[in-house]
């Protein structure tokens, strides 16, 4: 038994009910995920100095607080957050735009939710 080719998959009709279910999943996902991704983008800009390293002025964690001083692990968290935010935004766009197409659709909302969860965990652990 062979699997159908992509041309054959495009020829298969998709019932109207399937499009409705897709929209019922994609639209609330977009409403929830868009502000979260905007927050992640804002935080990426906020922590952008974590990439450049410490400035010219030394920082004492005892007086300024641990979160106020540059730490080497901040760069790693920034890169991981960027690696979750950018693909999360792409997956969100694909999950919304592919609701009207006939091909496989379900991986995009799942990937969006997983990347949002990963970004939230990384933000919670950012030093």
Helix content: over 70%
Shape: elongated
Structural class: mainly alpha
Largest sheet geometry: none
- SSE order: HHHHHH
SSE arrangement:
Elements: H1 6-11, H2 16-46, H3 49-52, H4 61-64, H5 72-97, H6 107-125
Helix pairs in contact: 2-5, 2-6, 5-6
Keywords: Membrane, Transmembrane, Transmembrane helix
Protein name: Transmembrane protein
Transmembrane segments: 24-48, 77-96, 108-126
Report on the structure:
This protein has 127 residues and is mostly helical. The chain is 71% helix and 0% strand. It contains six helices and no strands. The protein has helices at residues 6-11, 16-46, 49-52, 61-64, 72-97, 107-125. α2 packs antiparallel against α5 (72-97). The mean pLDDT is 80.
Write a concise keyword list for the protein shown above:
Transmembrane protein; membrane; 6 helices; 127 residues; transmembrane helix; single chain; transmembrane; elongated
Brief summary of the model shown:
The chain has 127 residues and is mainly alpha-helical. It has helices at 6-11, 16-46, 49-52, 61-64, 72-97, 107-125.
């Amino acid at each position: 038994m062979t699997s159908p080719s992509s041309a054959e998959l495009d020829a298969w009709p998709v019932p109207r009910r399937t499009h409705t279910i897709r929209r019922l999943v994609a639209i609330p996902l977009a409403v929830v995920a868009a502000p979260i991704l905007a927050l992640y983008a804002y935080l990426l800009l906020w922590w952008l100095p974590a990439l450049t390293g410490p400035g010219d002025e030394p920082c004492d964690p005892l007086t300024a607080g641990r979160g106020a001083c540059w730490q080497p692990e901040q760069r790693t968290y920034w890169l991981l957050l960027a690696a979750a935010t950018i693909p999360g935004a792409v997956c969100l766009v694909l999950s919304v735009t592919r609701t009207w197409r006939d091909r496989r659709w379900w991986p995009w909302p799942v990937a969006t939710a997983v990347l949002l969860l990963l970004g939230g965990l990384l933000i919670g652990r950012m030093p």
